[in-house]
């Protein structure tokens, strides 16, 4: 199946889910304008991204089961994937408000939409819209998985990962408060903590862990005389992979165009604790650091000039050369992740048929989606 066909099949499940959520809203006797607003919230914020997180649940289930999925298996895996996309939408709608972002996925951020079907501007209603996107996750899980033995495991995964993500967001926000940015607090260790908690758990670990639960992978099992804890193995590999992904994102924010990445990069102007600035602070000279202190995270009439000064310093091939440092980092990260994948004990042929044992291809498939990405 082509990438486009795979995406379209996954999107068809979103339509089923959206219709189900709208029917539920109506069953709660919600006014027509509120139902219309919720429908627009779903359409605007949920299906517009690359959908890698959601589709990865389907891909991981198929790899673990080592066979084509039945229609019911596909729907359940895709529904779990869409629950991650709802979680992502919840985070992004909130994050854009906190950051005062301008655009997302090539369109205005939801809170900046001036009119929703004649019902008025979004503005602060986006706060409740974010909450309702999160609430939809648990409604769907209850509707479709309540009778499954792994239902509580699914609930715990979503709750724990959401909590970890919010911890990472907290550290990010207080490390770089918009009204009092002090980049002297930034370093690569703090950046690693933020991205692992804020991004890696929900963008990488969650997809695979949900697939593992659906396939019946236990918490512990014996393989070739060794005790394996598969969820810890998944954490060991996928959290560094998520860190690599966020470093890519940080790099693309400064180096990519709006057409390439679907948004206007704002990390420099917003004073974000980005991998790029942490690297510059770690390896830069006193003069380069002083330039950062004077220009990074500065807003005002001349912010475009200050932002360009930072970019020029990043781009200096005779100086910091952030593109070269990123290339070196990227090659090392991919090599180390592949080495970790190779350490995962591979199940035998009989275990592969059952589908309840961890397989290296789950991680290789995920890594292949993000290597050398441009957006």
From TrEMBL:
BP terms from Gene Ontology: farnesyl diphosphate biosynthetic process
Short name of any one Pfam family annotated for the protein: polyprenyl_synt
Q: What is its EC number?
A: 2.5.1.1, 2.5.1.10
The record's GO molecular-function terms, alphabetically, read:
(2E,6E)-farnesyl diphosphate synthase activity; dimethylallyltranstransferase activity; metal ion binding
Q: Does the keyword Transferase apply?
A: yes
EC main class here is: transferase
Alphabetical GO CC annotations of the entry are: cytoplasm
Which InterPro entries does the record match to this protein? FPS1-like, Isoprenoid_synthase_dom_sf, Polyprenyl_synt, Polyprenyl_synt_CS
Question: Family per UniProt?
Answer: Belongs to the FPP/GGPP synthase family.
**Name under which the protein is recorded:** (2E,6E)-farnesyl diphosphate synthase
